[in-house]
Predict the structure.
Amino acid sequence: MDARQIQQVRRFNRLITQRVGALDHDYLRRGRPLGEARLIYEIGTGGAEVRALRARLGLDSGYLSRLLRSLETQSLIRVRKAPDDGRLRRVELTAKGRAELATYDRLSDRLAQSMLSPLGAAGRERLIAAMAEVEHLIRAVEVRVEAPTGADARWCLNQYFGELAARFETGFDPAKSNPAPDAEMIPPAGVFVVARLDGAAVGCGALRRIDRTTGEIKRMWTAPAARGCGVARKVLQTLEATARSWRLTTLRLETNRTLAEAQALYRGEGYREVAAFNDEPYAHHWFEKRM
Amino acid sequence: MDARQIQQVRRFNRLITQRVGALDHDYLRRGRPLGEARLIYEIGTGGAEVRALRARLGLDSGYLSRLLRSLETQSLIRVRKAPDDGRLRRVELTAKGRAELATYDRLSDRLAQSMLSPLGAAGRERLIAAMAEVEHLIRAVEVRVEAPTGADARWCLNQYFGELAARFETGFDPAKSNPAPDAEMIPPAGVFVVARLDGAAVGCGALRRIDRTTGEIKRMWTAPAARGCGVARKVLQTLEATARSWRLTTLRLETNRTLAEAQALYRGEGYREVAAFNDEPYAHHWFEKRM
DNA sequence: TCCATTCCCTGACTTTAGTCAGAGATCTTG
DNA sequence: CAAGATCTCTGACTAAAGTCAGGGAATGGA
C-alpha cells in the first residue's frame, strides 16, 4: 500500500464528502431537523418497527421516541401496536409522510442528475462504470464469528463443497477428505466465521486448533458474485486475529492446485509453501505462516 | 440520462456517505465537538484569516468567534491582527494545534488504509484508478460571469487563441477573423463566463447579442487538463440560461473543422448545422439552436 | 475630516442532538 | 401464575450548533 494510493483515496474521500455529503445536510433536511428527515427516509413506504429503526439508526430509545412523537404531531406518521407482539410498535407513513418521502426521492434524483448532466453520453457511461467499480471494491464486508451449524453457515459450506466438486479435476467427495466436524469449529477447539455484504452471507472460513501453538485454516470460500472485493482476505485476517489472541504462532493450510486465486491470496498474505504436513488426498499445496 | 444511470449514481452516493461520511463524524471528532475539529482542519498548517474561514465553512460570525475563543483557551490556536489590514484577524495553529492536525492526518490515512487493506495489489490499483476516474468526472465545475478584461479571462482567451493557431491547418491570426471586442461581451451587449475548478480558471465562453431574438456563442474553450469532465457543456448551459433570461429564441455559432470535440458537443446539446450565416474566414461549420 | 462600510466580537437567545434513569405495559419461561 | 426480560415512553438533564442584534475598532472614499 504505497503513499500515492493513500493520497488518491484521501483526495477522493475529501471530494466526495463535499459533493455528496452536501446531500445529507442540505438536500435531505429541507427545513426539517436532519434526525427527523433521516427517520422518514428510514421508515420508508413499507413502514417499520420502532426497535428496528432504533437498531438501524443507532439511536437512544428515548430520543427516538421523541422524534416519533414530533413526526406524529406533524401527522407524517402513524404509530400502532405490532399485531403479533403487543410490546412492539409499528410505524407507518401517512399519505402526507409518503409525499414527503417522495420529495426526498426527487431531490436525490436531482443530485444524481446534476452529476450526470454536465457529461456527454460517453462520459456518463464512464462515470457509472467507475462508480460501480468503486462500489464493488469498497463494499463494507462484515466478518463475524458464527456457529457452523447456523443456516447461513450451512449454506456457505454447501456452496463450498459444491464448488470443490465442480472445480477439482477428480470431483470432490467429503467422505474421502480429511474430516472437520462442527465441534472442531466451535470455541475453544476452533472458530467459524461468516462474511456478509449488506446482511447476506457471501463467504466463510474456519480456524482449527492443532496443538498449543499451531492452528489450521479451513473452509475458505467466497461467493462468486462477491469475488475481487476482498472478502476472502478479510476472512483470513479475522481468523489470523483470532489465532493471535489464542497465542498460536504457526498457521497451516492446504489447497488444491485448481484453486489459483486462493494460492495467490495465501502467498500475498505471507504464507510460504512447505512440505506436505498431512495426507489430505485432495491437496496439492501445503502452506504455513509464522505469526 | 436513463434511469439505470441515475440508480447507479444514487446507490453510489448512499454507500459513500455511509462509508466515508463516517470519517467526518467518528474519525475527525475525537472527543472534540465536530465544529472545532473542522475548524482546526480548515486552518491548516499555513493559518488563515477569520473572514476566509467564515466563508469557507459558511459559519455565522458570532458562532465562529466563539469557536475560535474556545480553541484559543485550549491553546490550539493563536489569533493576531492581520499585518496589512487592522480589521482582519489572522489565525494560526500553535505547536499543540499542529500536533492535533497531524493526528487528524493519521486518522484520514487510517481510513484510506482500511479501504485498501482488504484488497490485493491488483484490486488496489483498480480501486484507485476508478476513484481517480470518478473524481475527474464529478469535479465541481463552477461557471461564473466575469469581465472579459479580468486577469483569468485574459489568460483563457490567450490560451484559446494559442490553441486555434496550433490546431487550424491555416494557423490563426485574430486580425483576419471577425472581431469580438470586449465591449460586446459585457452586459447588456453580451456576457463572458469563466469556468473554474478548485478556483483555477479552466475554461471560458461568451454570448453576444445579435438582435432582439438572436444571440451568438463565441470563445468556447477548455484547458486540456480539464477536458472530458463537462467543463464546456456547463459553460454552454450557463450561456444558454442567460440567453433564455434575455428572451433570445435563436442561438448561433460557427466552428472550424479541426475542432471535432466542439462539434460533437454542439450536436449533443441540440444545435443543428445550417448554412453559413456570416463570412468568418476560419469557419467551416455553422450551427443554430432554437430555444 | 467625516461617514459609511467592513470586520470581529459579545450577549442573549433557540433549536437539535443526545444521555440517563426509571415507569408501565406486554411477553416468555420455568 | 410468578419472575424476569423486553419494549416503548416520560421526565429531567447536558452539550453542541446555530441565530440575531448590536457595538467598537479599523479602513476607505468623499
Q: What stands out?
A: Chain B has two domains: 3-138, 141-290.
